[in-house]
């Protein structure tokens, strides 16, 4: 056993420790290299997998021109042989064209020398494939790495995209031209909502010189205070199209425009505007028209209901409410068409039907009708309705309900009246015919047919009046008068005037005819047989002539007898005056009274005979009258003064109011005095004792009035009417009880009229009588009287 000292032991321990450290280090180093080898192997496998999966096939060309590749390129290109050099790629059937391969070889040589990469496009004629070859310097001197990338699909897509780009470019050009040619403003706003593009219409609208000026100045269509960016911003933020209507100044004129903003995402906002001024005016006109139409429909006497395209009620007038007994509150909810029909049925205002659903479905078809539909409804209450369904262009329906109950009743009454008229016409004694405006015979009765002896068949052809005149001319005593009938019918139908006449027939009958215009433009022709009345007329005419002759004989007799009576009356008056004067000796008192009575009676009889003569001469127009100025006031005053004694003797009050004026008339003073005396004499004779008589004169409107009134007994109306007639018999006098022959008033009446005046008699039984004489003033007096009035 070897024993080592401490130094040796320490040395050995140190050597062993170093050995151990070296072994551990070697072990660790081996482990690390093994790991790196495994990583390198995995990386190589990954890269190989990437190369295998790559869309490109690699190829290495050495400096000697040899090709290094794993055969994948040949399979990828579809070659049936392996590749040794680049020239093996030249094959018209399977590979590339030789010129392309030669060009590739030159590129490879250039890259090997210059170490610069290249890219070349190669086409395979047989398959139509297109490959892109990219070359770069490879590992090692003179080596070049080639990558073959299949660009067939990319080329096709590129070609397609190029064509699409060209098409879109053309479309964009066309769209740009369209936008520029648009007659309304169009624009585009960028993301900041400021104008980026405008068309020519926009430039003209804002009255700018160019689109660039509009964009630079930011000229907006709307006024500055209308916040032009607010609504486009809302459209951009909401991503929805915005439409608004606003007033704007377009080309210097205020117009109403509709602005549309279309969001384009991040590209900004596109917009356009079009003038709706006329459209708004048309809408306003339409609204006014609809309001006016509905107001007019509401005033109609027919019920009107309008339904929209969804068959809901949109309008009904007041007569519709009353006709179908519906409540306005219920109709305000716009009930549907079917519900309206059901409510009509509930109110018994719809026709009775066993199949009401089917009937209702048939009425619903009115909405799809192409022409108006008309029906007649008979309601349970007996009401007759005429229903007109008018389809509307918007798919709606307009219903008109006309109550024809009264019309049908009137039609029935009219038919009855027509039958009554026909029966009346046929049974009238007169012959009647109605001619139309064109002169044709329209209606006639049997009497008309019988008078002219014309067949009913001929009249049924409604001949013209010319033809009818030819038929009746031979039946007239004077055929030329037939044309008068034609002329009268023409006057009645054309000139609308009534005419008449008489005709005689050859059989001796006489007719009176007349043509009268009717309200409907026709003419009524009537023919009345006056044969019997004509005979009576002729008899009456002969009798009248005989009576007139008798009156003339009577007047002549009265005049003659009155004249003849004057001679013995003058003799009696003369002898009576001689007796009264004592020529035959003194007479006893009784005889003297008798003589006075004889003289009074002779004077009265002489006056009456004078009146008769004057009256007869006045009627014959042979009474002589003087033409001299007459002072009426003086004449009436003298007459009243002469009558005053008689009035006092009878206890009568005679009052007269006669102004001292210059009332002058031209006439016969004696005859005028005679007339005033007659009236005064009548007043004195017919007024009871103690009565009152008033005489006054006045000038009224160029006439002088003489008014004599009394409060006597008056006279009834029938007696007053004949008091101015001659020989009227008079009335009992109040003074002596004798009867007056009544010649005073008729004579005075004729005398006043002979002087151009008038006499008015007013009398009422129990209230007296007033006689007013009016005479025209002479010219100068009339002028002055008019000035006074």
UniProtKB/TrEMBL annotation:
Its EC number is 2.7.13.3. Gene3D superfamilies: 1.10.287.130, Histidine kinase-like ATPase, C-terminal domain (3.30.565.10), PAS domain (3.30.450.20). Keywords: Kinase, Phosphoprotein, Transferase. Pfam families: HATPase_c, HisKA, PAS_7. It is an enzyme of class 2 (transferase). SUPFAM superfamilies: ATPase domain of HSP90 chaperone/DNA topoisomerase II/histidine kinase, Homodimeric domain of signal transducing histidine kinase, PYP-like sensor domain (PAS domain). Residues 560-779 form the Histidine kinase domain. SMART domains: HATPase_c, HisKA. The keyword Oxidoreductase does not apply. GO terms for cellular component: plasma membrane. This is histidine kinase. It catalyses: ATP + protein L-histidine = ADP + protein N-phospho-L-histidine. The keyword Phosphoprotein applies. GO terms for molecular function: histidine phosphotransfer kinase activity; phosphorelay sensor kinase activity.
């Amino acid at each position: 056993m070897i024993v080592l000292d401490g130094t040796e032991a320490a040395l050995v321990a140190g050597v062993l420790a170093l050995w151990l450290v070296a072994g551990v280090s070697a072990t660790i180093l081996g482990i690390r290299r093994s790991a790196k080898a495994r990583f390198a192997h995995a990386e190589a496998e990954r890269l190989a997998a990437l190369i295998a999966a790559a869309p490109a096939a690699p190829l290495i060309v050495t400096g000697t021109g040899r090709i290094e590749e794993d055969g994948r390129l040949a399979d990828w290109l579809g070659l049936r042989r392996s590749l040794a050099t680049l020239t093996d790629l030249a094959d018209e059937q399977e590979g590339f064209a030789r010129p392309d391969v030669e060009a590739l070889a030159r590129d490879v040589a250039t890259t090997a020398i210059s170490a610069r990469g290249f890219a070349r496009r190669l086409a395979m004629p047989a398959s139509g494939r297109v490959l892109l070859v990219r070359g770069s310097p490879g590992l090692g001197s003179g080596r070049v790495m080639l990558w073959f990338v299949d660009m067939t699909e990319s080329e096709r897509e590129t070609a397609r995209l190029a064509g699409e780009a060209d098409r879109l470019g053309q479309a964009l050009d066309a769209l740009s031209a369209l936008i520029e040619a648009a007659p309304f403003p169009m624009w585009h706003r960028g993301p900041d909502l400021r104008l980026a593009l405008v068309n020519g219409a926009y430039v003209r609208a804002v009255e700018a010189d160019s689109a660039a000026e509009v964009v630079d100045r930011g000229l907006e269509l709307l006024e500055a205070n209308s916040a032009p960016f607010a609504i486009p911003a809302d459209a951009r933020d909401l991503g929805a199209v915005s439409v608004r209507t606003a007033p704007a100044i377009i080309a210097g004129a205020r117009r109403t425009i509709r602005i549309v903003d279309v969001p384009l995402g991040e590209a900004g906002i596109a917009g356009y505007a079009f003038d709706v001024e006329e459209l708004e005016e048309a809408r306003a006109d339409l609204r006014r028209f609809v309001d006016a139409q509905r107001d007019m429909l509401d005033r109609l006497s027919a019920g009107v209901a309008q339904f929209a395209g969804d068959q809901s009620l949109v309008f009904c007038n007041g007569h519709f409410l009353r006709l179908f007994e519906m409540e306005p509150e219920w109709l305000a909810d716009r009930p549907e068409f079917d519900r309206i029909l059901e409510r009509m049925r509930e109110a018994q205002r719809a026709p009775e039907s066993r199949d009401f659903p089917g009937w209702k479905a048939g009425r619903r078809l009115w909405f799809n009708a192409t022409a108006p539909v008309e029906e007649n409804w008979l309601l349970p209450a007996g009401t007759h309705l005429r229903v007109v369904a008018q389809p509307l262009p918007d798919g709606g329906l307009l219903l008109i309900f006309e109550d024809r109950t009264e019309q049908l009743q009137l039609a029935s009454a009219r038919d009855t009246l027509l039958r009554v008229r026909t029966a009346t016409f046929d049974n009238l004694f007169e012959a009647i015919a109605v001619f139309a405006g064109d002169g044709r015979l329209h209606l006639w009765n049997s009497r008309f047919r019988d008078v002219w002896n014309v067949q009913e068949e001929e009249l049924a052809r409604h001949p013209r009046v010319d033809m009818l005149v030819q038929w009746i001319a031979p039946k007239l005593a004077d055929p030329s008068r037939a044309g008068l009938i034609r002329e009268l019918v023409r006057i009645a139908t054309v000139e609308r005037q009534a005419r008449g006449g008489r005709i005689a027939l050859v059989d001796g009958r006489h007719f009176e005819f007349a043509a009268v215009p009717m309200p409907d433009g026709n003419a009524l022709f009537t023919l009345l047989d006056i044969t019997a009345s004509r005979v009576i007329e002729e008899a009456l005419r002969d009798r009248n002539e005989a009576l007139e002759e008798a009156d003339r004989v009577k007047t002549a007799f009265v005049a003659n007898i009155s004249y003849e009576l004057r001679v013995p009356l003058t003799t009696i008056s003369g002898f009576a005056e001689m007796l009264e004067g004592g020529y035959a000796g003194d007479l006893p008192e009784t005889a003297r009274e008798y003589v006075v009575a004889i003289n009074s009676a002779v004077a009265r009889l002489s006056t009456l005979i004078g009146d008769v003569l004057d009256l007869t001469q006045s009627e014959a127009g042979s009474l002589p009258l003087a033409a001299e100025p007459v002072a009426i006031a003086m004449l009436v005053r003298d007459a009243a003064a002469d009558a005053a004694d008689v009035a006092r003797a009878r206890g009568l009050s005679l009052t007269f109011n006669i102004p001292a004026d210059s009332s002058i008339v031209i006439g016969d003073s004696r005859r005028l005095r005679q007339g005033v005396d007659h009236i005064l004499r009548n007043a004195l004779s017919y007024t009871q004792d103690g009565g009152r008589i008033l005489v006054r004169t006045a000038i009224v409107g160029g006439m002088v009035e003489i008014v004599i009134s009394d409060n006597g007994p008056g006279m009834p109306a029938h007696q007053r009417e004949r008091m101015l007639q001659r020989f009227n018999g008079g009335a009992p006098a109040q003074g002596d009880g004798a009867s007056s022959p009544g010649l005073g008033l008729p004579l005075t009446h004729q005398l006043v009229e002979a002087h151009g005046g008038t006499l008015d008699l007013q009398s009422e039984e129990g209230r007296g009588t007033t006689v007013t004489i009016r005479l025209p003033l002479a010219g100068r007096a009339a002028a002055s009287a008019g000035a006074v009035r």
